[in-house]
């Protein structure tokens, strides 16, 4: 059988690409946050009234939130890969029905069908 027609192979390939993208995003955001903290070390704690730009607290808060979101997406994608491995990928965790492949293409780590979401 041609591996391109095997749904598990297609899902694994798609998820692998998504995992790579999400890992790179999380690493980039982590590096940006670390660089921001290093750049601000030794600076005055009160930058809320800095006329020269965006306050450190706003920059830190934005990057920390983005990093938290990236890590959550990465965990979901890793869990989806585990479902591929155990054969339950594409099955709704709530009703047990099949999740249409079009929905999995849009959000490859989807756990529930649209009806159960």
From TrEMBL:
Residues 87-116 form the Zinc finger DksA/TraR C4-type domain. A zinc finger (dksA C4-type) spans 92-116. Residues 39-58 are annotated as: Disordered. Residues 12-39 form a coiled coil. It comes from the Bacteria. InterPro entries: Znf_DskA_TraR. Residues 44-53 have a biased composition (Acidic residues). The keyword Oxidoreductase does not apply. PROSITE patterns: ZF_DKSA_2. Keywords: Coiled coil, Metal-binding, Zinc, Zinc-finger. Transmembrane segments: none annotated. PANTHER family: RNA POLYMERASE-BINDING TRANSCRIPTION FACTOR DKSA-RELATED. This is Molecular chaperone DnaK. It comes from Leucobacter chromiireducens subsp. solipictus. The lineage of its organism: Bacteria, Bacillati, Actinomycetota, Actinomycetes, Micrococcales.
């Amino acid at each position: 059988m041609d591996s391109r027609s095997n749904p598990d192979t297609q899902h694994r390939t798609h998820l692998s690409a998504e995992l790579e993208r999400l890992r790179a995003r999380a690493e980039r955001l982590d590096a940006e946050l670390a660089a921001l903290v290093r750049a601000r070390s030794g600076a005055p704690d009160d930058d809320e009234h800095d006329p020269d730009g965006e306050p450190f607290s706003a920059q830190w808060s934005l990057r920390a939130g983005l990093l938290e979101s990236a890590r959550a997406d990465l965990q979901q994608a890793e869990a989806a890969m585990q479902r591929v491995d155990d054969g339950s990928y594409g099955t709704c965790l709530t009703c047990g029905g099949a999740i249409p492949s079009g929905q999995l293409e849009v959000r490859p780590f989807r756990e529930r069908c649209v009806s159960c979401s």
